[in-house]
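== Polypeptide entry ==
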Amino acid sequence: MSDQQWHPPAPPASTGYGPPPLPPGAAVPPPAPGYGPQSPAGYGAPTGGWTPPPKPGLLPLRPMGFGTLLWAPFRTLRRNPAPVFGTGLVVQLASVVATAAVFVPFLVLAIGRIESASAADLDAIMAGTIGWLILLTLVPVAVGVVAGAFLQGVMVVEVASGTLGERLGFGALWRRAAARIGPLIGWTLLVSLIVLGVFGVFATIIVMTALIAPDPLTIVGVVLVIILLVLGLAVLAAWLGTKLALVPSVIVLERAGIAQSVRRSWQLTTGHFWRTFGLILLVGLIVSTIAQTVVQVPMLGGTILAVILDPTAGATYDAVTVASTVIGTVLSILVGAIVAVVQAALIAVIYIDLRMRSEGLDLELERHVEAREAGRPVTDPFAPVPTGEPTPTWS
C-alpha cells in the first residue's frame, strides 16, 4: 500500500449555468425570499402574493373583435337564461296585459255605442271614439317606456356582472336595476316625447294642408316634401341614436345623471361610430328576421291548413284559425322577449368594449378579479375614470 494519504475528490467544476454545486455534506441554503419551501426536486414554489388567474366570464378581458361583439348578446341569454329571459318575458307580458286591459273594454263599449246610435248621432260618436282611441294609445306606450327602461337596466347589470364571472339571480338583477330606474325612465321618456313630437308635427302639417288647400296637386307636393324630410330625419335619427346609444349603460354602471350620461356616450362613441352603428344594425336585422320567421310561419301554416280542412269557412275553419292565432300570439310574446333581451345586452357589450379601448377598462377588470379571488377588498371597477388622469388607449 502506498504511503500517500488519501484525499476526498474535489467538487466538480461549475459548468457556467446556475449556482456552483455544493461540496459533499454542505447544508442546503434556504430558498430565496418570496418563494416557498424547497421541493424534493430542489425547486422553490412561489408563495405569498400569487393568486390564480381570473376565471373566464361572459366577455374576454380585452378589447373584442367584431365577431365576439356580434355574438356576445346571444351568449348573455345562454349563460344565465332563467333570470335574463324571465325579465324579458315579464316586460313583454306587462306591455301586452296593459294594452289589453285598456283597449278591450274600450272597444267593447265603443262597438256597443256605435251599434245602438241613431243616424244623427253616429258621426259625433265616431269622432269621439277615434279621439279616445288615439288618447288611449298613450297608455301602452307609457307602459312600454317604463318596462323597456327597466329591461335596459337589468341587461346592463347582467352583462357587467357576467364579465366579472358573477352569476346573479332574478331578484339580485332586479334590485340592482331598480336603484337606477328613475333616471332610466326619465331618459326613455325624453326620447319618446321627442319622437312623438316629431310625428305630431308631421301629422299636423298633413291635416292642415288637406284642410286649407284641398287641391290634389298641392297635397301630393306636400307629401313628397314630407317624405324627403322623413328620410333626412331617419338619417339624423340613426346618427343620434348611435351616438347616444350608451346612455342607459352609463346611467346604471356609472350612476350618472342624464346630462352627464349623454356627454359620456357621445365621448365614448367618438371615433367608433361606424363600428357601433354596424353592430346595432346587423344584430337588429338578425333578430328581426328570426322573429318574423318564427311568428309568421305558424300563422301562415294555420291559414293554409284551415282552407284545406274546411274550404267553406265553417266551424273547422274558425277553430283552426283561432288556434293558429293563439299560437302566433304566444310565440310573438316569447320571441319578442328574446329580441328585447338581445338588443339591450348588445348595447351593454358595446359600452364595455369601448371603455376597454379608450380607458383601459380591461386592465381595471383584471385587477378587480385578481384582488377579489385573493380575498382583498375591491372597489367598483366600472366607476368612471377621474378627469385628468391619463388612460391607456387601444387602436
Summary: Strands lie at 35-38, 44-46. The chain has twelve helices and two strands. Residues 14-18, 31-55, 388-395 have pLDDT under 50 and may be disordered.
